[in-house]
Write a structure and sequence with these properties.
Layout lengths: L1 H29 L8 E5 L5 H9 L4 E4 L4 H10 L14 E4 L8 H7 L2 E5 L2 H17 L6 E7 L15 H10 L3 E8 L7 H18 L5 E3 L6 H6 L4 E4 L1 H4 L8
Parallel strand pairs: 1-2, 1-8, 2-3, 4-5, 5-6, 6-7
Helix pairs in contact: 4-5
Length: 253
């Protein structure tokens, strides 16, 4: 019975992933962009390591997590399957932190994440830098940690993200921090207003940001409900959870 359950879940994930992949390809084509320019990140928060294993078996290689220590526990389970030893710069699959990072948990995040998409405060920059240096010294990672600055598009401090006016100073903080690499920007479209409105604004903010930081080309934007709009406005990474994983489990893993 266990095998039948596993096969059913694998089949479900395969169908959902294929549908999301088709949506993304269609969005890229509609935007006149090149296929492969937009990364499809599968958001696996709340779901068990077994689901990640199934996705790995399906060829998925990019995952997003947003809860620590859930992510660390999951990665520890998966490390036993990974001949590279599971270090961020060595493993075949990549795992990014896409949720808010508490300073006290930055050290743990720095040990497993390829990139952090949600940096919006100096305090978090400094904590992640210390965490990366500790992870490098301990042999837990072999590369720098990518940093995306989360932008507040509507100025609501309760939703996370740095105000647009704070981006220049925050970017310089990242560039000066040992162990960190400024990779780009991340946005979450506010609930009020249309996705096109917010993604258009994100594209404008990014254009200004690239003028000063041409190396920071990543734009993490778009989720299950608005990925088409995000791709049309220049997203390089869409973060898809529900459309692939299904409804969240009633009890978090």
């Amino acid at each position: 019975m266990v095998d039948e359950a596993v096969d059913a879940r694998t089949h479900e994930l395969a169908e959902r992933y294929s549908a999301a992949r088709d949506r993304l390809d269609a969005a890229v084509d509609a935007a006149g962009r090149k296929r492969g320019d937009v990364e499809l990140m599968v958001v696996t928060k709340y779901f068990p390591a077994d689901d990640v294993r199934r996705l790995l078996g399906l060829g998925v290689r990019c995952f997003g997590e947003s809860r620590e220590p859930e992510a660390s526990r999951k990665l520890a389970e998966l490390a036993a399957d990974d001949p590279t030893g599971g270090r961020p710069g060595d493993r075949a699959a990549v795992f990014d932190m896409i949720g808010s990072v508490q300073s006290k948990k930055a050290k743990s995040v720095a040990a497993w994440a390829r990139s952090v998409h949600s940096v919006d405060r100096d305090k978090v920059v400094d904590a992640l830098s210390r965490g990366v240096l500790a992870a490098l010294d301990a042999g837990e990672r072999s590369d720098q940690l990518g940093i995306l600055l989360q932008v507040s598009l509507d100025g609501d401090p309760h939703r996370g993200g740095a105000p647009v006016d704070d981006l220049p100073e925050l970017a310089e903080r990242v560039r000066a921090a040992p162990g960190l690499s400024l990779a780009g920007l991340m946005v979450i479209a506010p609930l009020e207003g249309t996705a096109d409105r917010w993604m258009s604004l994100a594209a404008q903010v990014r254009e200004g940001f690239l003028a000063d930081h041409p190396e920071a080309r990543e734009l993490s934007a778009g989720m299950s409900g608005d990925l088409e709009s995000a791709v049309a406005h220049g997203s390089t990474c869409v973060r898809v959870g529900t459309a692939i994983m299904g409804p969240r489990p009633l009890v978090s893993q």
